[in-house]
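As described in the Methods, two query proteins were run sequentially through the folding procedure within a single session, without resetting any intermediate state between them. The first query and its resulting structure tokens are shown here.
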Amino acid sequence: MRDILLSIPDMITVHDRNESIVFSNWKGDDLYWENLGGERHGSRCYGCYFRGEKQCDACQIAEVFDTGVQKSIELYNPEIRAFRSITVFPVHNAAGEVVMVAEYVRDVTATRRMERELRVAKEAAEAADKAKSEFLASMSHEIRTPMNGVLGMLDLALDTRLDDEQRDYLEAAQNSAESLLALINDILDFSKIEAGMVELDSQAFRLRKRLSTLHTMFVHRAEEKGLAFGFRIGEEVPDGLVGDPMRLRQVLVNLLDNAIKFTEQGRVYLDVQLDAAQGALPAEGEPILLRFSVTDSGPGILESHREHIFERFVQADGSLSRRHRGTGLGLAICKRLATLMGGDITVESAPGSGSTFTFTASFERASFDGAADDRKLARQPQKPVTPARILVAEDHPMNLMFIEKLLAKQGYEVHTVTDGTEVLPALQRERFDLVLMDIAMPVMDGIEATRSVRQAGNMITDKNVPIIAMTAHAMKGDREQFLAAGMDDYIGKPINSDNLCNMLLKHLQRARRAAECASASSPA
């Protein structure tokens, strides 16, 4: 036992009731940490006194003898910048009495130095992550703003009289712009997910209606390639669900798009079932785990590629001669979204035998009682029932031209300003039914301009006029910030014409109903 104790690299000293040392494995001289005089064994010095002091304020031996409870302290020597961890613990006899106390000393200088380096590295990483988030927010705005102008003007141009050659050129430009936007969205979306900046929505939706829209979206592409294409939904799968339909759609769109893109002949199918681990349909209020499987008869994937296909920037075909380009982020995004939705994603495939991508997601059941979903699929924009005057605040010339022409074609009377400082004076001079407010403007941004409107008096326009944000920002917390400033809604850039027109109509009708109710309730 003595040989073993003497071989321990750390230092151990055992004391009796008189605080005399009965054993110590300390070796050599330690002028900075232990007592300088007397023999180690049998002396009252137990070897941990700081810088040779006979009595140590941090001495734990007497207390451990009295309480029988282990104690730990840590001492620092500034002369040699060293740390020592000291653990003092009781030694009991067969009767359970504390007859000795052992002191275990370990040099933890390297550990503390590593902890400090890790702390510094962590702080640097957090600062870099913050800078990355700010950079992404800036890039989101700087890239999406001109893309809004490009796509918007192409959309307006395609709505004019064109000959076949002109239409072909513009449609090719529109397709290229939409492809560029898809790549931008992938990069920004993955960065947000990686940084933990994506939160799932929770809303009731009809699964079969959402899938019907996806079927319509892809069936023509499949028919053009001569592929058999279909969806199958198990009878036991409930139609009403609570979850994030947009993220569900994002995963399915990516998987279906890949399946059709890489399949030259044969079939592409989507199968939706209760997950096998779920068993029977759970009771009301319990989560439901659904399994979505996209099967194709494409070229398949090598086993060596399957192991890494869900990693970022990885593609099954990485050669320069590959037929289909992309960021290599689509499946990585799907993997992370599936995890966020309480499931996972896997692939079964072999070269020449096609592939089956299966992902699971957890939902809750929803009951619509025969009523339609509040968040219906976007319909074709309707013409305004009555004329409305809209103030547009936008500093980007091309975006301003697009919005102005789009709204004018819808029958709205449009007035424009190019800075947030011009919004309040315009509302004080004239009456407007709605304000479209860009967020990033010079001198005064859209958020500050909205606050000034909500707090102002002496306006011809009602201070509760609907204000809709137009923003290229797409980061976590932006929506809450806009609403907290007093905005009623927001639409992201690049702006979809149909979505914008439907949003305008919704808020104009709501404002008019509120005005009618207020008029009816006021005394004559």
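Immediately afterward, the second query was submitted; its sequence and tokens are:
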Amino acid sequence: MKTKTYFAGILTAALLTSTGFSVQHVYGQTKSDITVNTEVINVREGPALSFPIVEKVYRGNTYHVVSEENDWIEIKLGENKSGWIAGYLVAGDMERAKSAEKATVTSDHVRIRKGPGTSFEETGYINNGTEISILDRENNWIHFQNDTLSGWISADFIQTGVVENNETNVQTVKATGMALTNNLNVRASASKDGRVIGKLKKDATLSFEDIQGEWGKITFHGESGWVNTSFIAIDGEEKATVTASELVVRKSATTDGEILATVHKGDSFTILQERNNMAKIQYESEKTGWVATRYLQQPSKLVQTEPTVADKPTSSTIVILRDGTSLRSGSDTNTTLLARANKGETFTVLGVENDWYKIQLAEQTAYVAGWLVSTDGQATQSKQSGIENNLNGKVIVLDPGHGGHDPGTLGVGGTMEKDLTLRTARLLQAKLEKVGADVLLTRNLDSYITLPARVGISQLNIADAYISIHYDATEDTRINGITTYYYHTYQQQLAKVLDDALSTALQINNRGYRFGDYHVLRENNQSATLLELGYLSNPAEELKITSNEYQEMVTTAIYDGLMTFFK
């Protein structure tokens, strides 16, 4: 998560030279030479954006101009090699820039970045209705320019065309979505027999100009193409599949709500809304109801496996926390000792009895005390014995940052912030529920939840504590550590206590607790904090914070901090 926010209004035309991709003629050498005066420019195989990128050229390097074609310049890259750059990237050549493809921004506060991806630093915002020229494309990102701004934005938030007489002369975007598989074919026509014109990477974001049956029309490298929507997660049409043999549909978003119907394993539904770990689905024509989200599976995102209608313990796993943990023949410390397990060993859960998990050994079953293990957050939770009662009955709202079409930051190793925050929240939820806390997740699936909605869950349920979970990123890959934020003075004590707990438990740089102007804190009337639990932009730290060991330690530290806070 980025920690700095700038407004487009404070940006000046200087941004064009500081962040734009441009070159300039260097007179005094030869008028046929150009020098790159910005960070990087894409060099293409031919004179159009539809040609593949063959090389990148960088600031300060000078190249000889071989030829020009339309608005493109061919430059010499080596002894027998050349490539093409857009002529309208030449500094000061605004007449050529006017010939670039035009587009209109379709949303407010679209983030401008220094490069094509969420890992690049933000430089400001651009708002709905702004006309821009498209200078370059890379994957689903475009490099744009207008009279005052320049940079990279997601292609999801533009429409090609211009505004004339207060009417937008553009193509209508019918839907947006994300590719669920690698090497997804883009075809010239809406048919499996259509000519393949390119391929998409997994998680590529798309804007559909038209949808015909199972085919969606997109713009791909400047030309129209079609993709099979069976391999696309369509925003606003988030599908989930039932994993339970039978799953009840309830009238309200509570586990004791009136039962309306029963759905079955393999049934697939559109998720209309999430609340209190429940998902609202349309189970029949014009009939909606609520089901438990833990018994749903989204494409490529396992949420839960094989529960039963009576909420019996689900197939799950537990991880041993201590060396020499006893595995017994029954759910009591007086039963026969069958074996011992060491820290880090995992076992399949068959059931829960009292405060004990029933597990599968090689040739027999055994029981292990629930307070000696951690879970993946999916099995019915055991209450720990003999532990302090500070959290019993406390309402804790855990807010896994980002989700859905908002991935958050992207780690240098490919970790998506939205996935890691949900993983951390689920593990922490499991620990807190063991001691009787009433834990609510703002999202329990890979879905987009607005900031006001996240705060609303905290306010509506009168949360005793609200914790927003994030992971950080910055352009400087050397920066590391954790940071704890608060906004109001009544939130400061929670931030301080959690900061102390994290600092004590983790072998990681602690950047302390501090003021942070975040919506989920500023608009929140409850005790609330926002945690940045490490930098995904630091290669070494990304490896560390995504490990099972770190996830176990960081959630235990937050758990311990909450125990202290509620003393």
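Residues 2-30, 162-172, 299-315, 376-387 have pLDDT under 50 and may be disordered. We note this only descriptively and draw no conclusion about the first query from it.
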